Amino acid sequence: xxxxxxxxxxxxxxxxxxxxxxxxxxxxxxxxxxxxxxxxxxxxxxxxxxxxxxxxxxxxxxxxxxxxxxxxxxxxxxxxxxxxxxxxxxxxxxxxxxxxxxxxxxxxxxx
Length: 111
Description:
The chain has helices at 22-38, 55-70, 82-90, 103-109; strands spanning 2-8, 11-20, 42-53, 74-78, 99-100.
């Protein structure tokens, strides 16, 4: 699992790549929560390179969105692969998260 942080047009971007499993969730949760507290609290979670996500990873997504909202922000998703999107839809998280395939459109939605 690899995580990168950046800022795009006043929106904080977190890019996840690899496999998001229970082994990684605690460390990534701490990093994302710190990023939310010290940034804009509007978070674009770029998951275009995320190959796999387990139930703990799904919990991380939900918890991170809640944390962003506590700080008057939001968390949206960018570019899930078909396998990840299918899991989001199966668990009905696709109805909770705003999901975009275009980064510029996603960034604009947070303004």
